[in-house]
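Input (structure):
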C-alpha cells in the first residue's frame, strides 16, 4: 500500500505541511508527500530538510498560471490548482494519488481508500456529514447545500481514462469558476465535485466515520480511546481535519462553527493542543506575516482579499502573462475611481470596488440604497466604521486620505470641515437634532460632541484624527490656535468676550488659558491638542 500523497500550500502553511508529512512517515512509510507550492521559488530555509518533494504551481499549470494567480485570492488559487497538480503526478507515473489538505493529520493507515481504488474506483470522495442534522447550529445541512456535499480537503483518484476525463473537466471549470461567490452558487473547487457522481463512472463515496473527521461532523462521530488507538464512532480514526483551528485560543475548536466547545470534544481535545504544539515546533508563529509571491499590493502595502480579486475578475483586463503584469498597481487604481453608474458625488465617492462589494450582497442594497445621497453617505460611513471588514476590503483601499483631509466649507468659516465629520452628522439623527451646521459656532458644537462620544467609547477615534484637531486655524508659532482650541472658543460666548483671536495678544492670552487647570477639568481631551510644543510644530 504505497500511492502518492499530495497537498497544495503557500509558504505560510509550511508548518501544517510538515506535520502532515510527519504523520505520513509514521503510517505510510513507503509513501512520500508532494507539496505543490504557490510561490515563485522554493525557500530553502523553510523546505530544505527533505520532508517532501516540492513542485511549483507555476510549472504545474504552465501557460495561464499568472492569469489564475491574478484573478484568484490565495484560498481560491490553492483550490484551483488541485486537478493540475494531480495530473502532474499521473504524468510522472503515479497510479494512485491521495490529495489531503495541509491542516490534516493522519492517525492510522488509510486502508479503505486504497482498497476502493484497487477494486476499480476512479474517484473516492468523503461527504461532510453522513447523518441528518437538525439542531439549528452551524454548520448544518443548508450550509452544506451552499458549500458542497463533499469536503475537498480529501480526494482519492486512480489513474484511468475516466479520471483523465474528470480531471480535464474539473481543471477547465476551475480556470474561470473557482471563486468564493455564494450569489453565483460557487464555493471554489468544492461545489463542482457535487456533479462528479452524475458525470463520471466509478465515483465511490467513502462513509467510514474515521475519514475527514472535523468540526463539521465530530459531534456525530464521537472520538474515544481504546488499546492505544483513537476511534471515531467505534472505527479507527484515519485522519482529522484541523480546519479553522485558532492559532492561539485552541478552545474555540474552529472559527467556522458555533456548535462545539472544548468540553464537547471529549478526551480527543488533547490532540488539538498537541497539534498546535507540533505546528509551533515546525515553525508556526501566529503573529508573523509571511510573504506570498502573488499577493496584490497598493502603494507598497498588501491589500489582498477575495473582494478585491472578485472586482478584478469582473473588470475588463488583458491577459496576465508574468509576475510583473500581476504586480501592476494600475488596475487597482482603476477600481478606486468613482463608479460611473452612480450619481457624481465628490464629497462621498463610491468607488467601483465598493460598488461591486455592495452589489454582491443583496441585504446591503436594501439597507443602503446607493442612488440616493443619504444612502451613499450612510453606506460610506458604515464601510469606514466597520463594514470594510465584512466586505473584505482593506482599509488602504478606502478613501481615508480624502475623507480625513479638511476641505473648504462655507458653513465652517475658519474651521475646515473634514468630510468624515459631515458624514457622521448626516448619518446620525440624534446628532442632527442636537447640533446644527449654523456657522462656526454650530460646527464647533458638533466637534465637541463628537469628541465627547469618542472619549466615551461611542465612536471610533479615527473620526477626528489627531493631525486634524492639532492643525492650526489661525496665528503662528507662539500664538497659533488649533482646531481643538478654536472649536471650544467658538462654543463659549464668555471666552469670545474675553479673548479676541484676531490679535496676537488675544491669541496668546487664550493659549495661556488653555494651558491652565480650568479647561483641563472641563475638557481633559484638550490637553492632547494644546501643548505649546505641539502647536509650534504644527505651525512650523
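Output (sequence):
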Amino acid at each position: 500500500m504505497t500511492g502518492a500523497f499530495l497537498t497544495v500550500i503557500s509558504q505560510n502553511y509550511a508548518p501544517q505541511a510538515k506535520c502532515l508529512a510527519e504523520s505520513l512517515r509514521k503510517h505510510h512509510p513507503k509513501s512520500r508527500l508532494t507539496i505543490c507550492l504557490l510561490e515563485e521559488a522554493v525557500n530553502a530555509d523553510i523546505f530544505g530538510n527533505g520532508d517532501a518533494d516540492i513542485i511549483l504551481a507555476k510549472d504545474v499549470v504552465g501557460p495561464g498560471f499568472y492569469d489564475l494567480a491574478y484573478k484568484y485570492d490565495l484560498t481560491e488559487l490553492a483550490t484551483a490548482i488541485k486537478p493540475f497538480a494531480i495530473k502532474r503526478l499521473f504524468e510522472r507515473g503515479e497510479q494512485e494519488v491521495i490529495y489531503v489538505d495541509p491542516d490534516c493529520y493522519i492517525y492510522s493507515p488509510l486502508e479503505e481508500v486504497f482498497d476502493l481504488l484497487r477494486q476499480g474506483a476512479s474517484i473516492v470522495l468523503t461527504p461532510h456529514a453522513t447523518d441528518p442534522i437538525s439542531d439549528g447550529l452551524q454548520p448544518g445541512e443548508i450550509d452544506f447545500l451552499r458549500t458542497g456535499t463533499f469536503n475537498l480537503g480529501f480526494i482519492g483518484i486512480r489513474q484511468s481514462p475516466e479520471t483523465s476525463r474528470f480531471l480535464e473537466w474539473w481543471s477547465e471549470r476551475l480556470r474561470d469558476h473557482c471563486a468564493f461567490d455564494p450569489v453565483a452558487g460557487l464555493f471554489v473547487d468544492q461545489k463542482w465535485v457535487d456533479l462528479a457522481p452524475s458525470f463520471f463512472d466509478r465515483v465511490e463515496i467513502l462513509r467510514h466515520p474515521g475519514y475527514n473527521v472535523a468540526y463539521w461532523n465530530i459531534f456525530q462521530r464521537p472520538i474515544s480511546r481504546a488499546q492505544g488507538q483513537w476511534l471515531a464512532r467505534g472505527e479507527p480514526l484515519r485522519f482529522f481535519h484541523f480546519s479553522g483551528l485558532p492559532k492561539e485560543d485552541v478552545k474555540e475548536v474552529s472559527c467556522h462553527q458555533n456548535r462545539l466547545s472544548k468540553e464537547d470534544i471529549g478526551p480527543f481535545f488533547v490532540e488539538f493542543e498537541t497539534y498546535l504544539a507540533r505546528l509551533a515546533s515546525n515553525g508556526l508563529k501566529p503573529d508573523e506575516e509571511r510573504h506570498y509571491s502573488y499577493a496584490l499590493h497598493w502603494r507598497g502595502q498588501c491589500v489582498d482579499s477575495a473582494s478585491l480579486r472578485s472586482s478584478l475578475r469582473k473588470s475588463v483586463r488583458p491577459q496576465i502573462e508574468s509576475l510583473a503584469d500581476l504586480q501592476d498597481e494600475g488596475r487597482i487604481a482603476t477600481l478606486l475611481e468613482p463608479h460611473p453608474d452612480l450619481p457624481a458625488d465628490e464629497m462621498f465617492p463610491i468607488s467601483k470596488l465598493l460598488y461591486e462589494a455592495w452589489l454582491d450582497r443583496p441585504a446591503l442594497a436594501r439597507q443602503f440604497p446607493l442612488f440616493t445621497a443619504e444612502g451613499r453617505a450612510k453606506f460610506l460611513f458604515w464601510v469606514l466604521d466597520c463594514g470594510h471588514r465584512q466586505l473584505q476590503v482593506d482599509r488602504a483601499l478606502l478613501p481615508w486620505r480624502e475623507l480625513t483631509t479638511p476641505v473648504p466649507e462655507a458653513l465652517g468659516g475658519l474651521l475646515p470641515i473634514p468630510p468624515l465629520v459631515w458624514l457622521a452628522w448626516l448619518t446620525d439623527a440624534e446628532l442632527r437634532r442636537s447640533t446644527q451646521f449654523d456657522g462656526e459656532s454650530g460646527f464647533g458644537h458638533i466637534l465637541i460632541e463628537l469628541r465627547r462620544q469618542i472619549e466615551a467609547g461611542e465612536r471610533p477615534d479615527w473620526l477626528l484624527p489627531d493631525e486634524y484637531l492639532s492643525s492650526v486655524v489661525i496665528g503662528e508659532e507662539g500664538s497659533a490656535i488649533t482646531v481643538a482650541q478654536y472649536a471650544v472658543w467658538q462654543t463659549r460666548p464668555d471666552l469670545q468676550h474675553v479673548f479676541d483671536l484676531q490679535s496676537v495678544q488675544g491669541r496668546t492670552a487664550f493659549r495661556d488659558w488653555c494651558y491652565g487647570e480650568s479647561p483641563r477639568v472641563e475638557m481633559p481631551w484638550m490637553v492632547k491638542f494644546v501643548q505649546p510644543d505641539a502647536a509650534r510644530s504644527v505651525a512650523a
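Notes: Residues 532-540 have pLDDT under 50 and may be disordered. The first strand starts at residue 4 and ends at 9.
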